[in-house]
Specification:
513 residues; mainly alpha
Length: 513
């Protein structure tokens, strides 16, 4: 194992070096949070594929293949479908908005009335997503080094927090590109063909396993439908995904690069299911399907190659973890803390000046170091993620809670804002509240893993959005004009950054100030 250990250690050292190099490029808020909005097609598609294909897609995808056969590809397949839909239908418009968070988009569209509550929901989602990714370190480092669970979580989490805090999105982009290459070589080019050959080829696999393992819907039609609701729709509205869209250099990059990444996800989904099916032939009596990936890597691969494939699994977890972490910190700082700070300033008797124009400055009017502020929030959120991960055990339940809250609470007001001009801020608030509460209530009564919470949560959210929007006054014309100007990418609108700290008035002009 010495060679394999050397490969892993060199990989981890490289991730930290990328973080240090990225720190030198992150000199502005735009650089730190969205890589300066200047990624080209190759880097954009690679990093987008890296963030959506995490530990659940790699280790979990192989586990589903072990349990259900080729139909185990559906979970990752629906992630790819969601990314394709986002890229083809919405990414260009999202990129033209020139915002940093989903809640800022809602502020622009609805006049500043829905941002805070949506920010809290999005923060909870990104926090739990980062936690579930961090929990996966325990499995991987146990396989690699036999480390204690707590030590594995701290070690893996500390590395991700370190390079994310140093360089922000530039560091994460660089590391994700490396991780994309490592995953492609390790999983698609090495593990996939070796696993199939070790299992005797497809003919032998088909002879050894039941027919259900090769049925398109062997996993169950209702399960596929639930995956579509949770993962495909989740890809359309997640802050971690949108923040990558914001890094695109232009509309064409966002559309074509995202389409390439989505197509890659479909291939990756099928590869994971095939590897899992091969593992079922080789090791028919594993204690847990999620052990299939580590088992086939340890037993079927030669020295050196084994280290590279384990590095691929580690890279899958790290890319999702770092993307979720910077998304969580961005929401916490820009959507929650900035608003609270703005309210305190408006209520403070120490100044008569409105807080909006001063949103980017300190108390004496000097420019505030926004990079440093966002760096502090990444560090704080990273520490919180590690602490929560140490206290939790069930990864699937934590991930389900995250996606149920996201989709049940935010899908309708976000897509409604993009597609229905009659939607109002009051309707958006009602939709978030009703959908979120319905999902939480049903998860408490029926169980976290039940399908009904997301079904009824989405329905309740839609009904509340439409009913309240029709019952309230239409959104102010000036707000809609500013919104349409941003969507059109007009220079007078697209060139200005939205100041969340300035409150509702920030969206009353095309400049967003």
């Amino acid at each position: 194992m010495a060679v394999d250990y050397a490969v892993i250690v060199l990989y981890l050292a490289g991730m930290l070096a990328m973080g240090w190099w990225g720190m030198r490029r992150a000199t502005s808020k735009s650089d730190f949070l969205v890589a300066g909005r200047r990624l080209g097609p190759a880097m954009y598609s690679g990093t987008m594929a890296a963030i959506v294909l995490g530990g659940a897609s790699t280790i979990g995808g192989v586990g589903l293949g072990y349990r259900y056969g080729l139909s185990g590809a559906w979970m990752v397949f629906t992630i790819g479908l969601g990314l394709l839909a986002l890229s083809v239908f919405f990414s260009a418009r999202i990129a033209r908005l020139k915002v940093y968070t989903v809640s800022e988009m809602l502020d622009l569209r609805y006049g500043g009335s829905a941002g805070l509550i949506s920010g809290v929901v999005m923060w909870a989602y990104t926090l739990m997503l980062a936690v579930t990714s961090t929990l996966a370190y325990a499995t991987i480092f146990d396989v690699l080094f036999g480390l204690d669970r707590a030590l594995a979580i701290i070690l893996g989490g500390a590395i991700v927090v370190a390079y994310s805090t140093l360089g922000g999105m530039w560091s994460i982009t660089l590391t994700d590109m490396v991780q994309f290459v490592v995953k492609t070589i390790g999983v698609l080019l090495l593990l996939l063909p070796i696993a199939v050959i070790k299992a005797g080829g497809f003919a032998e696999m088909k002879a050894q396993l039941p027919d259900d393992y090769f049925a398109p819907l062997g996993i169950g039609g209702q399960t596929v439908f639930t995956y579509v609701l949770i993962y495909s729709f989740g890809m359309l509205i997640g802050q971690d995904i949108w923040q990558r869209v914001f890094t695109a250099r232009g509309d064409r990059v966002a559309r074509l690069g995202g389409t390439a990444a989505g197509t890659y996800c479909l291939v990756y989904a099928l590869a994971g299911a095939v590897i899992g099916t091969a593992a079922k032939v080789l090791y028919p009596h594993l204690g847990s399907p999620d052990d299939a990936f580590a088992t086939i890597v340890k037993d079927a691969l030669p020295v050196g190659v084994r280290g590279l494939v384990l590095a691929a699994a580690l890279s899958a977890v790290m890319s999702t973890s770092s993307g979720a972490l910077i998304a969580c910190a961005t929401v916490a700082n820009n959507d929650i803390w900035a608003r609270i700070r703005g309210v305190v300033r408006r209520q403070s008797p120490a100044t008569d000046a409105p807080p909006g124009p001063d949103a980017g400055h300190g108390a004496a009017g000097e420019p505030r170091d926004e990079v440093r502020g966002n760096r502090v929030f990444i560090l704080l959120m990273g520490l919180a993620v590690i602490v929560i991960a140490l206290a939790l055990n069930n990864v699937v339940e934590a991930l389900t809670v995250a996606y149920n809250l996201l989709v049940g609470g935010l899908l309708v007001p976000i897509l409604g804002g993009l597609l229905w001009k009659r939607g109002t801020g009051a309707g958006a608030l009602a939709s978030v509240a009703v959908g979120g509460l319905t999902v939480v209530g049903l998860m408490l009564s029926l169980g976290v893993l039940a399908n009904e919470p997301i079904y009824y949560g989405l329905l309740a959210s839609l009904v509340a959005y439409v009913a309240v929007s029709l019952a309230t006054r239409p959104t102010d014309a000036a707000v809609l004009d500013a919104w349409r100007a941003r969507l059109a990418g007009r220079p007078d609108a697209a060139g200005a950054e939205l100041s969340v700290a300035s409150g509702p008035s920030a969206t009353t002009s095309p400049a967003g100030r």
